[in-house]
Amino acid sequence: MAIINGVDMPNFTKKEIPEFAAGLISKQMLENIQKYRTIIRNPFNISLAYGALFRFDGRKSSEHYVIVDPTTDRLIKPSTAIDGFPVCDIFKAWSMALSSGLFNGIGVYFDTNNNHGHPQPMLHLDLRVSPLIWYRDKGEYFYPHKDKDFFLNLKILLNS
């Protein structure tokens, strides 16, 4: 059991979410990822890739993007996103994330390798204001409002 940035997170360790990183992630996101982990009843291994928990560079519109006041070191905008690998069927993990009501942004990436370098789908979960789902396959992003076959293709990928 770990207390991470003041949040009781019995399903995670301080090694998975180190204190320096936890201080850059919104408490709501930490609480929600803990609730999600309890719901799926399987581990959710946070990605070790750069930016999986927070970023200081890249697109400023990213839910991972963090803003710190350089003069005071005060956190202005924490990360509200986490990328990770559920240790269960990806369809179960995706559908539980979608139905949980814990996240507004849910992306599934079919072109990723897990923390051991093996191909495994990854979930992006975030707290954006407007709900959005998407998937990425072979480096290309797909959205329901832009791809007429979005749900058919997603179903095929989730079941493969």
Describe the structure.
The chain has 160 residues and is of the alpha+beta class. It has one domain: 2-Layer Sandwich (Muramoyl-pentapeptide Carboxypeptidase, domain 2). The chain is built from four helices and ten strands; from the N terminus they run E-E-H-H-E-E-E-E-H-E-E-E-E-H. The strands form three sheets. It has a six-stranded mixed β-sheet with strand order 3-6-8-7-9-10, with helices on one face. The chain has a two-stranded antiparallel sheet with strand order 1-2. The protein has a two-stranded antiparallel sheet with strand order 4-5. A hairpin with a 2-residue loop joins strand 1 and strand 2 (7-9). The model has no long low-confidence stretch (mean pLDDT 93).
Uncertain runs: none
Order of adjacent strands in the largest pleated sheet: 3-6-8-7-9-10
The largest sheet, given as strand count, sense and whether it forms a barrel, is:
6 strands, mixed
Distance linking N and C termini: 34 Å
Q: How many strand segments?
A: 10
Task: Note the topology.
Elements: E1 2-4, E2 7-9, H1 19-22, H2 27-40, E3 44-46, E4 67-68, E5 75-77, E6 81-86, H3 90-100, E7 105-109, E8 122-126, E9 132-137, E10 140-142, H4 150-158
Parallel strand pairs: 7-9
Antiparallel strand pairs: 1-2, 3-6, 4-5, 6-8, 7-8, 9-10
